[in-house]
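ok so I'm stuck.
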Amino acid sequence: MIDKIRKRNGSVVDLEEDKIVNAVFKAQQAVDEGNREIAKTVAKDVLKKLEEKFKRSIPSVEEVQDMAEQVLMEQGFTKSAKAYILYRNKRTEERELKSSLLGGLIDDNKHITINALRVLK
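replied:
not stuck anymore, here's the structure
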């Protein structure tokens, strides 16, 4: 059973199924597709596929997110998958901007908005 995940900073933490459910549900809400129960089912399928793929290793955050995208597409939730992908891209851009503006001084502090960083710059 997959119970750990490797974060972007390399640390290993407990995998929280609810985080997968919430991410999928938010993507579904963004495009009026699916509901919380479907998001739970998708998350369970993501975990099953992760268990098959990572029998002897710990998946990274990105690998879990990739699997969520794959499962959404396989199950016909293409609009939700697109919303999920777009949100991931937006968050990646935000992390990169924070990193470039702060020079690595803060590790993706969610309390500092992009606009605040621009003002600080």
